[in-house]
Amino acid sequence: MSEILKLRNISKTFPGVLALQNISFDLSEGEVHCLCGENGAGKSTLIKILSGAYQPDEGGEIIFDGRKVVLNPHLAIRMGIQTIYQEHVVFENLNIVENIFTGSEIARRGLLQKREMRKQTVEVLKYLKSDLNPDMKMGELSSGEQKTVEIAKGLVFKRRVIILDEPTASFSSVEIDNLLDIIQTVKSSGLGIIYISHHLEEVFKVGDRVTVLRDGRKVSMYDLDGLTKTTLIKDMVGRDPSTFYQRESVPIGNVVFETRNVTGNGAQNISFILRRGEILGIAGMTGSGRSELMNVLFGSAPLDFGEILIHGKIVKHSSPKAAIKNKMCFITEDRQNTGLFLPQTIAQNVTVANLVNTREFVVREADDSRIGDRFVKLLKIKTNDSRSRVVNLSGGNQQKVVLAKWFNTNGDIFIFDEPTLGIDVGSKQEIYKVMVDLLKQGKAIIMVSSDMPEVISMSDRVIIMKSGEKVAELSADEVSEENILTYSIGDKAI
Amino acid sequence: MTGDEAADQKKLARGSLFKRHENLTVLAIFIGFVVIIVLLQLIMWGGHKFPTFITPVNLLNILQQVGVPGIVAVGMTIVMISGGIDLSVGMLASLVSIVTALGISKWHLGIGLSILAGVMSAVVLESLMGYIISRTKVEPFLVTLGGMITFQGIALLLCNSREVIMKGELDFFKLNLIQGAKDPVTGLNLIIPPYVLIFFVIALLAGLLLNYTKYGRRIYAVGTNPHAAYLAGINVKNMKLSVYIIMGFLVGIGGVMLLSRINTGIITLGQGLEIDSIAMVVIGGTALKGGKGNIVGTLIGVFFLGSIGNAMNMLRLPSEVQFVAKGLVVIIAVSAGDVSARVSGFISRRKELRWRAAQPVAKAG
Questions:
Q1: B238 touches A at CB < 8 Å
Q2: A494 inside domain
Q3: Considering CB atoms only, which of A352, A392, A426 is closest to B232?
Q4: CA distances (Å), B311 to each of B33, B43, B303, B314, B326, in order?
Q5: What pLDDT score was predicted for residue B16?
Q6: Of A252, A314, A373, A404, whose CB has the highest number of CB atoms within 10 Å?
Q7: How many domains does chain A have?
Q8: What is the ipTM of this complex?
């Protein structure tokens, strides 16, 4: 087996963040090399460097077929590195053949050679033992079938390396097996495959070697033969204690919120309770159905089955409006698209959610500005006054505006979905402090987070979700990185 | 009141008409407008005894011409701020005029009931479109395009493709509110018909609604970011529906006013009304993608387009040339709006950055 790809000393810094540090990585022909690590360990950054989307810092070397190269997205594809991202980048209205060839059509004197393109597609699909009809529209295929087409594309163009980023998210188990079979076939034809997955079962089934990343560093590299899951998980955890936040403890009161067998929007059979003064952490890997569950609780996605209780009374949240009236607040994950009105002022953003609770038909700008200014001071939003536009603020300050919007509704039950996503360290600490202040006022918090130190240092209890189900509930003294990771990526049985 | 608060109040008072950079776009257009008016005035003054363009009688003339498009433009502003658009208003106004005229001269419903029938037909039809727009993901552009064609058909069916002539039953809408007033310059009669007044009242009410009410806030929120608005507890669907109902009401009034001016219900009455009103609204700085705009801007747009048309008539330009000129005016005004929006964005960003730089460095962690 000869080596196709070699990475040496790859580092990548973003302003204020060291995303990758001195990574080395090898890939041989006919090999499946897996990448493992928690959310934010640096897997995506590494892929982006391989696909040419990011340039590594000075000193890093990428060696392809024995030659040192500087990659850009076009060059990477020309040299035969194909990245298949988690989200499908497909033309839904075009058929399989057209999807494969768009951008590199076979043509003679400007005329498309449709028969030739179809022939090549059919050959590859046959080789992959797929029974897909090449004339089907891409939009009609399941996500598993779409992955197959993308892999087929790699074979048609004789790529050397295929990178699969979380390929099995939203797959059925049959589809997973199919995909793993296809990968075995592709591997035997001499391609190198880089496989990224949260699912350790898949890693063990399909992989030859595995590299573990943690906090942007390479921790270890193993042959998967004879390796145990426990070793792998141990390597993935074990963070620097300085990344943890020391939280004040707050006395915990009676139950304010409860779910019984809540099912809907991908979440299945979720039951939990939430007490006054408590932070309930919801951990799990991306795609485990956590945000989906939060939308059900807040009424922005339908509840198919089950009950939601607030202060012991069953409530029906047909819309977010109803949830807000029941004193719930929802700080969404994607603040720019679902939390803020970017072109509007801070004051307008802060007052908008409370419109539900106000009786007056007339609103006064002076009142809004006063409320806005109060929160600017309270949350230390860095701006000159509350009439500045939100679009000009930094991420941390925008997040504070979202918080202010909900504080202004005077809610009791807060859902924080990724409260500190993309926020600098200083603002992070401030937001944690604000969360603890909420607890002191007798509020309760449900916190969805993929940031492991955040989950561990902030939560009083942690629920772990996997594939839409609650797989474990850990009390404060059971909460550890290892436990959380074991439940969220390992077999349920561990 | 502490000094700080007093300063705040002062800032607020100063910001009310042209709120900071918010209306810089509109301000730029307004200045352009004034410059053009002065130019036209100079051109037309040449050689004559009196200035012809800026005279009381001609200004009132312009008001009469823009009254009805202005009423519709006010509705269009609300619809566009919410992120929608309405192409059907022209044909709907024609339909209203035909229904009302039929009610008076053929169905003998009496004047009040006929007007009600006309206005209600517009409200009902707009509600239907609003219902489809708010409950499905179909583009408002397409729904109202279909509406435009459908309404034309309904109107033609109702009147058998003929015009419906009345005997001046609606002439009270043409009364002169300032009977006997004379232009001090030219000595001509000054005329302000009621519908000009109605236009101003509607514009005022709409301005108050958008600026000072909960409803107005929600319209802006829905237009800016419907998903965030939904999560903030706003019933986005009903908000979208409501703006079309308002639109229907205003088109109904506009259609009746048009009818009163020429006493004949006819399909061509509302022709081009959608184009004119959308042009007026976008000249006034309202964004096609929603969330941005205001009535002050629209009023400027209304007078702007009206004055241009009027001036070109006075210059005796053929109508073909007028179309070209009007179209160019729209394009120039909108481009100017974009330029000034960039400038204002740049200024506010710089102000923000400067302010941030002036702050003591916050200790991280």
A1: no
A2: no
A3: A352
A4: 13, 10, 12, 5, 11
A5: 40
A6: A404
A7: 2
A8: 0.77
Q: Does B346 touch chain A (CB under 8 A)?
A: no
Among B15-24, B49-58, B354-363, top mean pLDDT goes to B49-58
Q: Using a CB-CB distance cutoff of 8 angstroms, which residues of chain B are in contact with residue A326? A: none
In whole numbers, what is the pLDDT of chain A averaged over residues? 88
- B-interface mutation test, from A298, A319, A358, A408, most B Cβ less than 10 A away: A319
What integer is the mean pLDDT of B201-228?
93
**pLDDT one-digit tens code per residue, A271-293:** 999 999 999 999 988 778 999 99
Whether residues B9 and A298 touch (CB distance < 8 A) is answered with: no
Domain shared by A288 and A151, yes or no: no
- The reply to whether A220 and A347 lie within a common domain is no
Question: Are A42 and A19 in contact, with CB atoms under 8 Å apart?
Answer: yes
For residue A312, being part of any structural domain is answered with: yes
B9 and A300 in contact by Cβ < 8 A? no
Min Cα distance B204 → chain A (Å) is 15
Kindly report the CA angle at B328 between B325 and B334, in degrees rounded to 5? Answer: 140
Instruction: Give the end of a domain, one of A182, A212, A236.
Output: A236
Contact B12 A365 (CB under 8 A): yes
In this structure, are A273 and A326 located in the same domain?
yes
Cα separation, A246 vs A432, whole angstroms: 10
More confident residue, A303 or B319: A303
**pLDDT tens, residue by residue, B30-41:** 677 778 777 777
Asked if A319 lies within 8 A of B230 by C-beta distance, the reply is: yes
Q: A256 φ, ψ to 5°? A: -110, -25
Q: Is A286 helix (H, G, I), strand (E, B) or coil?
A: coil
**Residues of B with CB below 8 A from A330's CB?**
231
* Ramachandran category for residue A109: left, alpha or beta (phi over 0 → left; psi -120 to 50 → alpha): left
pLDDT at residue A86 in the model: 77
Give the whole-angstrom CA distance, residue A184 versus residue A30: 9
- A99 and A206 housed in the same domain: yes
Which residues of chain A make contact with B227, given a CB cutoff of 8 A?
A: 337-338
User: Residue B24 has which token pair?
Assistant: 């810089």
Tell me: do A14 and A124 sit in the same domain.
yes
**Which residues of chain B make contact with A319, given a CB cutoff of 8 A?**
230, 233, 235
- In three-state secondary structure terms, A389 is strand
Q: Is residue A45 part of a domain?
A: yes
Q: Kindly report the nearest CA distance between residue B348 and chain A, in angstroms.
A: 8
Residues of B in contact with A364 (CB under 8 A): 212
Statement to judge: residues A309 and A451 lie in one domain? yes
State what percent of residues in chain B have pLDDT above 90. 50
Asked if A181 and A56 sit in the same domain, the reply is yes
Shared domain check, A270 and A200: no
pLDDT value for A93: 86
pLDDT of residue B46: 63
Which residues of chain A have a CB within 8 Å of the CB of B216?
363
Asked, for residue A473, whether it belongs to a domain, the answer is yes
CB A283 within 8 A of CB A455: yes
Query: What residues make up the domain containing A108?
Result: 3-236
CATH number of domain containing A141:
3.40.50.300
Per-residue model confidence as pLDDT tens digits over A338-380: 999 998 899 999 999 988 888 778 888 888 889 999 999 999 8
Rounded CA-CA distance B364/A151 in Å is 46
